[in-house]
Amino acid sequence: MYRWEITRAALEQRVFAIIRAESYDQAAATADTLLSAGITSMEISLTTPFALEAITTLTREVGSDAVIGAGTVLDAQSARLAVEAGARYLVSPSLDAEVIQTGHRYGLPVFPGVATPTEMVRAMELGADALKLFPASAYGPAWLKDVCAALPQAPVLPTGGVTLTEAPEWIAAGAVACGVGAALARGDRDVVAKRTADLLARLADARD
Fold first, then answer.
1. Which residues on adjacent β-strands are paired with residue 178?
2. Residue 132: active-site member
């Protein structure tokens, strides 16, 4: 797949799940629950023990049914390891040119972290495929709406403290998709499935 195709697949539902766990088993169980609930894009944070192994296993198991990315990719070395593990996209809380270059060298889209309009423009100049607004909890949908009025071409992904209630508001304000963590995966399978279906429906309506 081309980078733009991976980006589209990763953000198609207007939400991607963020898995940051204390163990490999916990990460695998969370991913399994989210996949069964219908989530088709998830980022495994490299702060998770054995995150690379989890990425490799999940990518092999889900095939084309979901897109598995690597999160908290801080430098070129981490980016290369994520590529080798089978990650389909790279996400970072910071803006690092070498991470973008490494991802692109191997055909992967990269979503670096930004926090200001200046950083957004810089990231786009470096070729970022989408922009992770982090931490989103420090801003708000109204702020993003103002930014998008000046930078309508910026593909913004609010992440970090995004609630299930706020996620559709971010989309309505101009975000391409939102990154959501524990708020989405908490509970048993039935609870997560219901919560996910409700969120996906509200996200689909947010910019129709």
1. 15
2. yes
pLDDT in tens, the chain (208 residues): 899 999 999 999 999 999 999 999 999 999 999 999 999 999 999 999 999 999 999 999 999 999 999 999 999 999 999 999 999 999 999 999 999 999 999 999 999 999 999 999 999 999 999 999 999 999 999 999 999 999 999 999 999 999 999 999 999 999 999 999 989 988 888 999 999 999 999 999 997 6
Name the catalytic one among 5, 22, 43, 166: 43
DSSP characters over 124-180: HHTT-SSEEETTGGGS-HHHHHHHHHH-TT--EEEBSS--TTTHHHHHHHT-S-EEE
CATH number at residue 168: 3.20.20.70
Look at the chain and report how many structural domains it folds into.
1
Whether residue 194 lies in the annotated active site: no
